[in-house]
Write a structure and sequence with these properties.
This protein starts with a helix and ends with a helix. It has about 300 residues and is of the alpha/beta class. It is built from 13 helices and 8 strands. It has an 8-stranded mixed sheet, with helices on both faces. Helix content is about 50%, strand content about 15%. The longest helix has 18 residues. The structure holds guanosine-5'-diphosphate and magnesium ion (MG).
């Protein structure tokens, strides 16, 4: 990883570091490890949105390591905390983009960062030599279609759109057809994040998913959920609904740079069981980075030694 990308992670995780994880170092001094040590660590991990299960598992692992290695002073826990955190984050799996076109549905609640990150993804894969098509299947708001069209013009990526309030399934179908006709490598399809009810939204997304399969057997090849890193536990509840409805295959963790809740990354992987593929580290098109566990850990714990 380049110095530049590494620094982007470090800067992007500054809030999470300052608000929570960075405080671990201050808690660990030359004092004896006692019940308070565990309570304080537990409170901090929960506050950092690591999730209850992950926190408990982590505390148990730390206690076990303390016993095994005969640690007595709190500062002796530092390396163990670091290695136990590292052990709880996975690198993203290799993306399978063999299908041509590969159809990728981008889902998530309103405002989570779908359209912005879809544009970032388009730019990223375009720079790798892929031919991209965007589908504007968030027909619920006219502004959403325009927003994607503006990105499309800026990046020189064709945008397949329908009428505002139109049928998102029809847009998805047209997008897949257009991707086939243009011999595109990847079609990214933007979807609505809000309808009159959550039930309607999930039913609509299922329909969009089915329609993609009609236009091209096997499509969509992936469903990526954009999660807003500033919303913490709430985002985890919402994610479960998307996972149940449309079988999410990976997460894009947006807005890490404006979040103090980066600890969510652990809960996403351990409690939702979803891989984090990319993280949003800013609003610009180039501020999308493949998820990098080592850089993430360095980012939340910098100055920890
Ligand atoms: N700081 C920051 N802002 C982001 C990021 N991703 C999206 N945003 C902002 O979040 C807001 C909502 O994004 P948008 O893509 O419209 O969300 P959508 O409703 O899910 O399509 C916009 O102002 C984006 O610029 C990110 O990674 N970092
Ligand atoms: Mg949008």
């Amino acid at each position: 990883m380049s110095e530049n990308v590494f620094n982007k992670w470090k800067t992007g995780l500054a809030r999470t570091r300052k608000t929570t994880f960075g405080r671990i170092a201050n808690m660990l001094g030359a004092s004896e490890i006692d019940a308070d040590t565990w309570d304080d660590l537990e409170a901090l991990f929960i506050q950092a949105d690591m999730g209850l299960e992950t926190t408990e598992e982590l505390i148990e692992a730390l206690k076990a390591a303390q016993q095994k290695d005969g640690l007595t002073r709190t500062d002796e826990l530092r390396e163990t905390i670091k290695s136990e955190l590292v052990a709880r984050l996975d690198a993203p799996p290799n993306l399978n983009m063999d299908a041509r076109p590969s159809v990728i549905l981008v889902v998530g609640v309103n405002g989570s960062g779908k359209t912005t990150n879809l544009a970032k993804l388009g730019q990223r894969f375009q720079q790798q030599g892929k031919k991209i098509v965007f589908g504007a299947a968030d027909t619920f708001r006219a502004a959403a279609i325009e927003q994607l069209q503006i990105w499309g013009e800026r990046l020189n990526i064709p945008v397949i759109a329908g009428q505002p309030e139109g049928d998102p399934g029809a847009v998805a179908y047209d997008t897949v057809q257009a991707a086939i006709a243009r011999k595109a490598d990847i079609a990214f399809i933007d979807t609505a994040g809000r309808l009159h009810t959550r039930f309607n939204l999930m039913e609509e997304l299922k329909k969009v998913q089915r329609v993609c399969g009609k236009a091209l057997p096997g499509a969509p090849h992936a469903v990526w959920l954009v999660m807003d890193a500033t919303t913490g536990q709430n985002a985890l509840h919402q994610a479960r609904a998307f996972k149940d409805a449309v079988g999410v295959t990976g997460v894009i963790l947006a807005k890490l740079d404006s979040s103090a809740r980066g600890g969510m990354a652990f809960a996403i992987q351990r409690e939702l069981g979803l891989p984090i593929l990319f993280a949003g580290l800013g609003e610009k098109a180039e501020d999308l980075a493949p998820f990098a566990p080592e850089a993430f850990i360095e980012g939340i714990l910098a100055d920890f030694q």
